[in-house]
Design brief:
By secondary structure, the protein is an alpha/beta fold. It contains 6 helices and 6 strands.
């Protein structure tokens, strides 16, 4: 038995805590690296295009119960705003139907961009998609004269959308430029889960080629 201040703790407790802390730190750090790398994969135009050229940021909706926007969709909306702020000619398209609730994810995202994040730029809404494949397919006709394109989501999910774009419209892959989906220390606690699910889905996607 050891003393920790005035409290007695079983022998080995401090060592166990130390090991557990190291394991948690390693998992969190690894997931951050996974997201950071995914943020750049599939980007064909890493140099980007001049900021004054027209482009589109597509905000990909996440399953949302009820009429209030959930944590993941708020995160994706923040990613979108970060991605358009340095590009004044940007349009945003909020994509997603009413998959788990009665309100389309696209409408929830658009409302949060306006009211929650005070985004004053042009916003389009796509309300029919029920999957990432459909997100990509349904926003392509809305791109107009866009000279660049960003998918705003978690890094691995955005990579999945870029993979779908490559399969559906390989001629448009040249439009892909880096977004601002990865930020060190943001959503760190849930990133390991997103990394595990994202890697699993990407692996299945590659096997289906």
């Amino acid at each position: 038995m050891r003393r920790l201040g005035a409290v007695r703790v079983p022998r080995g407790t401090l060592e166990t805590i130390g090991v557990a802390s190291a394991v948690v730190a390693a998992i969190l750090g690894a997931s951050e690296l996974i997201h950071a790398r995914a943020a750049r994969r599939g980007i064909t135009n890493r140099a980007g295009v001049p900021a004054d050229r027209p482009g589109v940021v597509v905000v990909l909706g996440f399953a949302n119960r009820g009429t209030r926007i959930n944590m993941v969709n708020r995160w994706r909306a923040r990613v979108a705003v970060r991605s358009v702020r340095r590009r004044p000619a940007a349009r945003t398209i909020c994509s997603g139907g009413a998959v788990w609730g009665t309100t389309a994810e696209g409408d929830l995202l658009a409302r949060y961009l306006r009211e929650g994040l005070r985004w004053s730029g042009p916003i389009g809404v796509e309300r029919e998609s029920r999957s990432t494949w459909e997100n990509v397919a349904n926003v392509v006709p809305l791109l107009g004269d866009a000279e660049w394109l960003v998918f705003a989501s978690g890094s691995l999910h955005a990579e999945k959308a870029r993979t779908y774009l490559r399969r559906q419209r390989p001629d448009l892959v040249r439009l892909m430029v880096p977004g601002s989906d990865h930020r060190w220390g943001e959503m760190t606690v849930v990133k390991p889960l997103f990394a595990a699910v994202g890697l699993w889905k990407l692996a299945r996607l590659r096997r289906s080629t």
